[in-house]
Input
Amino acid sequence: MRSIKIVAGLVLIFIALFVIIKEQTAGVSADAFVNARLTTTRAPIAGTFELVSRPLGARIDRGDTLGTIVDPLVDNVRLADLNQQRLATKAELGRLNATAEGLTSSIEELQTRAENYQRERIEQLKSQIDGAQASAKAAEARLRYARLSLDRSNRLSDQGVRTGEALEQSRSLAEVAELDLANAQETVRSARINLAAAERGIFLGDGYNDAPYSEQRISELEVQRDQLQASAAAQASVLEALDARIRAEQLRVNRLSSASLQANVSGLIWDYLAVSGEAVQRGQDLVTLVDCQSTIVTLSVTERVYNGITLGSSAQFRMNGSDQLLSGVVTRVAGSGASTVYENLAIAPSERHLERFDVTLDVPALRQEPGLFCLIGRTGRVFFEDRPLDWLRRVWN
Output
């Protein structure tokens, strides 16, 4: 019986030593801490920086205003030049339109004069026709009388009553009457031709062209007006192009005169690199933010544990002061002295950390669970192997 108790005691001691040794030698990190990527907001323009007051570590959402930059000395020389060109172009366009309107008024006056001239000329030609027709009738009557006189003179001459001189005189009168009739008829025909042409707007006569001065002047003014209207259309196109350039330049000046800085991530205010009232330059770093959607766990392990880890290996992370185990996956194995991988992370490693082998763990619960969201800087341990007392921890939890 005594030997059984001794054996049982030795077995219990062996089991306890196994559990203790296995618990201590299981793959576990020396230290681990919650980390995340940093993002820096830079000045889009030069000017005076005004910051929205928030304490360091304050929570922010994507799109929240971080501050504003105002530049009262923005370069607007180009905008002023464009506005001056626009005023000059607009003045020239107004001058061309006014001149064209003046020519239009002159053309209308000349058209009135030309219409009056045509009307009066037609009346004049009608009067000439009437007078020529009356002269033709008179010449025709004289011709009949002259012919009667000539016939009578011929009879008297044959009878010896009239002399040859009287007969010759009757013949002359008859010839003159015929010429007068022909001349009157030609005058009537010419006047009718002139009247028909005048009714069509063509004026025939000696000493002037087919159109009166008014119509000739109208043609000249219409050519000048067309040229002015073409120049005005060109100036209108230039004015339209200037308006488009001014709008674009105004937008550029507005963008350079003031700018609003907005958070590009949801996370924490990590550091202020400029203060309110400070004159900043374009591209200058102003605010550093922590991107809580990129939360990871960074840790260091011994060489023995490191050589047993590969990308995609599963692990469990437990924060100090908590019994909750969070599942994770290895996403990077950077080895020893991996200081460069921390240049864009919120928490920098210690020198002792860098002497070990660096590993990065992705723990989705740190981004998904509200109570664990963005706990940047919290420390803990990561376990890569099952431990003998894990079943007890699961029952306890």
The first helix runs from residue 2 to 25. DSSP finds eight helices and 14 strands in the chain. Residues 300 and 320 are 16 Å apart (CA to CA). The chain has two domains: 27-64+268-396, 79-235.
